[in-house]
Amino acid sequence: MIKEPDTLMLIGFMGAGKTTVGQEIARQHHSHFLDLDREIEKKAGMTIPEIFKKEGEGAFRDLETQVLKNAQTFNGVVATGGGVVDRPENLAVLKDSPATLIYLHGNLESTIKRMLAEGQRPLLQERSVADFFALWRERDPKYAQVADFVVETVGKTPERIAAEIVALFSANEDDLAVTALRSQIDAFDRQLFEIIASRMDVVLAVAEYKKKVGMATVQPNRMAAMKKALKTDFKGTPHITDEMIDQIMEILLTTAIKRENQAIDEG
What we know:
Layout: E1 7-11, H1 18-29, E2 32-35, H2 36-44, H3 48-55, H4 57-70, E3 76-79, H5 88-95, E4 100-105, H6 108-117, H7 121-126, H8 129-146, E5 149-152, H9 158-168, H10 176-213, H11 220-233, H12 242-266
Parallel strand pairs: 1-3, 1-4, 2-3, 4-5
């Protein structure tokens, strides 16, 4: 069994949910929580934007390194800032850290969604998606380099992510690799259902159009053509069989027809 750490440190890109997940872990585990950005603000006596404006990024990074060093033996959960891996001094601290480091890993799309949900729209407006992607690609290998464990966050609630992290330390050491892989599978499953939900939104838009122009709900030729095209595209892919395509498309098409008919009747 993996030894439960005295200090659990969360790292990851901005918007990964480090603070929210860290607070949830502390709640579930009845432990203490420390947010590095808040500690920096306490030490400086001003907010982070004020530090950048009045003293510059260099001063902020100096404070960040000091606070990061002091947090290595904090008895509880620590949430770091997204840019903590940008400075070589910080990377050195993290590599030699007695804390257990968890990388909260997501994709760019989920990160931007989370930032919008957290009200960080001004920050998003300051950078283009291309800028965020470049920064994410630059930082991703650095997070992975120092992390003891990587936990996938896409499509998961903070409560679910926190529970997975807590469960790591009740797992058999031999099972950890499987646990990590299952975490990835869970993330993929949630992405699949998010896509299906988005697909159904488009289905309803199609239903409105069909109703407007008097088009038939069921179009067998289009359905058959779609199945044929998918089988051609995935021919030779060992994990995607013709039978699987038939079964999945049948479920999607049956559900879509039902929702279209409901929407038309309700309208």
